[in-house]
Amino acid sequence: MLNTKTRIAGGLFILFLFCQGLCYARITMPGVFGNDMVLQRGIKIPVWGNSDPGAHIIAELGTVRATTKADTEGKWMVRFPKFKAGGPYTLKIYEKGKPAEGLELKGILIGDVWVASGQSNMEWQVQQSADAENEIANANFSNIRFLPVAHDKKLIPQTDISSGKWQVCDSANVKEFSAVAYFFARKIHRDHNVPVGIIQSTWGGTPVESWTSREMLLSSPISRQAVLANDTLRDPYDFVQDSLNVIRFWDIVLNPQDKADKIVPSTEYDDSGWTETEMPRLIKDFGIGPYEGVMWLRKKVLLPERFEGKDLVVNVGHPEFNYSLYFNGEEICKAVWNSNPTHRYTIPAHLVKKGENVVSIRLAMIWNGGGIYPPADSLYITDGSSKISLAGKWLYQKDIEPALPRIMDYHYRPAVLFNAMINPVIPYGIKGFIWYQGEANAPEAYHYRKLFPMLITDWRERWGQGNLPFLYVQLANFKKRKDTPSESDWAELREAQTLTLSQPNTGMACIIDIGEADNIHPTNKQEVGRRLALIADKMVYGRNDRIASGPVYKSAKTEGNRVRISFTNTGSGLSAKDGRQVTGFAIAGNDRKFHWAKAVIEGNEVVVYSDKVVSPEAVRYAWADNPECNLVNSEGLPAVPFRTDDWKGITRK
Asked: How many independent structural domains does the chain possess?
């Protein structure tokens, strides 16, 4: 039997060996590198990682070798010489004399890499977009690769992403890719026969400040105080607690709690204490004030005998956000983020009975939104030959299910997304950036004039590849259309985006014609991606003969009671998209009261006037949340919204 000293010595030896194993620093690389990645052609390709301090590192890309020595912290970087588009290649990284202990990454292509970033409209998935089923079925492009960077937020810059790996674009993987980025990449790949890599770093509902570095934000009085407020946060405690609340929040939103889905939709359920309301309508019209949580709606509907025993179709108009639909206690659908944009569903024949039937809807009211959009004739049940309206009196009840936890939305905080989702991929070699964001900054649109160029400058300086192309999407038309000319924070945000074109090597895709009044996430992402690619064709790929933008305001000249507007990017001429009279112009005199104007196309100019304005001082075009406007160039691209005045707007404090 071993004595005590021997046992202790043996235990210490084993512990020593264990610690030695833990302390052994093998070669590692950050998550931006991986199998199936795309590396940027035409530049010296940066590749980096960690190892033992002072280790002699050998890197081989195909038959090309590069060497370096790790610094005192074990950090190393090599730069391969310029490669032409092609592949696949294998990348091997190992310490001199220890090839068996190294890394090997396979299936690598050389092509063009674009960083796709922004908020929800850039994050919006292929499976959520128009014609999704067909697009997914035909999305087999082995030379298009995506790296979706996982959501993460940090108070200090990180050197690695929390998770995410390169994926080959096919019907299995494409569903959750950014639709805008996919359609952009597809056109670039087809037009230029080059592999395309997309580093997708997106998070819905986030302002531009979240994506900008602390150092850059501290340089401006607009953002300085908000950045310093981050210093009160306790990372990771606050972020972890908020993340747990987010998980609970979405569990309640997406999954009925306490078996409510088995109880509330039942035909036997007692709803006598519920409140009556008219449907369709939005929560803001309920008269209950701001509300976030789950709301249940019920309606008893009488069906004629001829409906009994038939498959019926129910159309529930356009419920906002996430909802579930039930008929006589059975779930008919569970729609998540407009997963069925038509909102039409089949009611199986075995559920249908003559006389009284019960329709129930579980609505997740979030972000002070929710409800069912009008018109009333979009709510009905039909057997194919006749309709029974579901509009009118419904009963509703809130707080049947647990309350939603309070979410602090720390991902809104300045710099936290830059730290966790942008900094870790710098300085990966790239071709440029595509960006779709601005909705979250609309209430402070005037500041966006400074904040957006700050982000562009910040990223370019940190990547160290000069003035990399920065292509972005202007906000689409959205919200209820107004009958008279009025002020608009969305119009002012679009103006800030247009002014950003003064930055070098920038391009803007105008989509003022393809938005949706009742959907902040318009589904036609194919055209958004195409228009970004048109700009890339002209600005990045040298096709200078392309018309890549709609008409852009150039100058205005007053001629009596008329104003003559000149444009650039007119192609072979201007026209009204629908063949009718030109719409979208408003004109004002020195009283600054705008009136709808008549507009006549004369060559590459538009003459604007109104009988109500004798001495015009200002002209505006498409200046509204959701303007009715139709001026296009010969390529069918819409004129960019503009104004000739510089009068103080509603977001200029």
From this structure: 2
